[in-house]
UniProtKB/TrEMBL annotation:
SMART domains: Pept_C1. Residues 95-330 form the Peptidase C1A papain C-terminal domain. The gene is LOC123096005. It comes from Triticum aestivum. Pfam families: Peptidase_C1, Propeptide_C1. This is Peptidase C1A papain C-terminal domain-containing protein.
Amino acid sequence: MGSLLPLALLVVLSAAAAAPQLVGAAGRDHSLGIIQKDIIQTVNNHPNAGWTAGHNPYLANYTIEQFKHMLGVKPTPPGLRAGVRTKTHLRSEQLPKVFDARSKWSGCSTIGKILDQGHCGSCWAFGAVECLQDRFCIHHNMNITLSANDLVACCGFMCGDGCDGGYPISAWQYFVQNGVVTDECDPYFDQVGCKHPGCEPAYPTPVCEKKCKVQNQVWEEKKRFSINAYQVNSDPHEIMAEVYKNGPVEVAFTVYEDFAHYKSGVYKHITGGVMGGHAVKLIGWGTSDAGEDYWLLANQWNRGWGDDGYFKIIRGKNECGIEEDVTAGMPSTKNIAGSAFAI
């Protein structure tokens, strides 16, 4: 007799099977390039677009299918959110009209670093490690770089499916339960040649080796942890308060074809079909000269996309679902040498 599957696994599998699948643009040949002249013209000729579209070099050779593969946020099974705390902040808290985490915590170099996820659908992992390493600097004065590869390769089915997508909240739960090693221990990109899923479109999710690439480094000793994993209430003021107090947060949203063409301004969906779900790092907010409130975010498609790797999206209207899936956690002192207050 086989053993019964754990309840958590049953919840994940059944809910994942029932989750609605995002569909691509009707009528488009998915072998075509994602950059489309007609989309650029439609956006730039739209009187109320509020943003400029163009040819982004980073995506120059991407087909629609390859672009969709990069968008690695899967629809979260309802069971995964069971028991996850939703953090709230008081509405009475005073917040600045303009905020940029890079300026407030100028000594934290990771906040302003634009990364590259390559062809792997690992955005769910990147958004999480970026925010946690920023928060280590903000709260513990530690400039460290954490490994997206640890998550992609080792979290397994509880986080989703590696390079074929995952769940942001599960990434944060992994930090609590398993920790995440430094990028030096387990780098995302292979430094010799290019044998990683981030490099080639057809390359599979890497194998979890639990072994540092650097000689004399011990995997378990390089683990860094989060105290908790939580959602942030979808009210814009509360999201702002969370970022202002604790640092950048991971946000997931729906990507349409026109987003691939973003160059500057305050994005809102204008044209094109749904491509998939994507996770990025939210670092600030402000109001444009035209009076549009916006969020400021860092993408991980290198600096050859968007506004030097960054983008703005309209704030307060839950554009593309940007305000309804906000996740974060607080860094732990567990496993940090010399800590007198390990958690």
